[in-house]
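agent> call fold_tool(seq_1)
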Amino acid sequence: MFCTTATTLVPIQQSTGVELTANLAFEQSPKRLHTRLKTLQKYILKYPTGWKKRLELADVLYALGHWSQAAEEYQRVLDRQPHLLNVWLQLGQILRLLDQSQDATAVYQSALEQVSDAATRHHIQGLIYDCNEHHIAARMAYQQAVDTEADNDAHWFALAQAHLREDDFEAAIAVYDHILEQQPDNAIALSHKADLFWAMTCLRRLHSIGRKSSAIAPHHAPGIKRLLDHRCRNGLVQGDEKP
């Protein structure tokens, strides 16, 4: 099971120039990761043509939140070992995190060329659709992946996320329920389902607050919005708040 030992805030520079901040959880001690990073960097300076240590370097950079540098190292690995499907997928995921959808699409298309398995091809096609915001097509592709390879959790989790992008919370919960029927202790499914229930409860309560506020001051929409934003941001939506 994933065990968080520390967290930190890392900046994410997107392609638009907007800088976001993410709260990064570490499975290993950050100090240990930094020590490993220095060791790997020294090794690669001495042996620049090897790819295994470079792949490990990319993984450490990713774990530390240095995603742009990690993407560069993953690309260097792929230049030497283009058959490594998981590296293609990891690189695509990083580029999506960095809001570089066109580059991510190109990476996923390259990954598709490495794959003959039908379910994996459906899944990667779904990723390509997601990069281009074709969310209905993406959901259908993930559904095909599930139908083809029902025992692969990755397809189910992708399908759940696709339902969420369409605001179909009930369908997403049904997917998590299916996973939990097969694996009652699946920590990821349990966590996602709990988060989803919390979000749905918060949303219902926010709607209730909005109705109450609009009844009190129907012409003061900016004030109502600020109130809702403030209460949600600070976790103040609690209990039954009926109009």
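agent> call fold_tool(seq_2)
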Amino acid sequence: MTLSLKYRALLVKLFYKKGDCAEIPLKKFRLLKGLRSGSVPMTAFGLRKMIDKSEELGSFDVKCGRGRKSIASTSVEDVATALQEASSRALGTCSARRISRTLDIPVRKVRKILRNILQCYPFKITHVQELVPADLPEREAFALQFLARMEVDHAWTWDILWADESHFHLQGSVNTQNCRILARENPSKCNHCLFILKRSLCGAGLRQHLSLALSFLSRLVLRVL
């Protein structure tokens, strides 16, 4: 429990009022402040130590610490510039580690600047496939082919081991695992990419001599969670 200057003065007053006894002032302080039994601001030893230090220094105020180096304004400007340049890219994503490597600044310092000074927080994004009318013929042809095969062999589908679909981006330019958008507020919007990613959709197909795989040209939409 951190004591303010007012509460420290009250403890010192109770200490001298009760005849240099450390236990009684703590109990009295707990009753005056409505604290629960056993909940005291400090121990009797801590109170005596505070009194001895106040008598030595002539003040019972908290001494100021050794202090920490302030963050230079140039570092803040460099981080803000790097963040603005990253947000203007196609994906609009950035990371503290990338800024740290680019500017040769410790990553811990970059995170402090982003959160404490620039008030920016990381928001995770996810990619969503955008279906357009031109994609309908490919999917319709696959569905008709699948139904036609079922008419020939009704037990054909029972020989297929179905699993969750997995997307493999051939260019490897999108990885949403560590993809973040740094902003002051959640954008809550979709960013349409200006390029088309070719990916391979493996939907499931495992039989003795059957392997089912399709390739689509998929337009990518990034949505902020």
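agent> summarizing second result for user.
The first strand starts at residue 121 and ends at 130. The chain has seven helices and five strands.
agent> awaiting next instruction.
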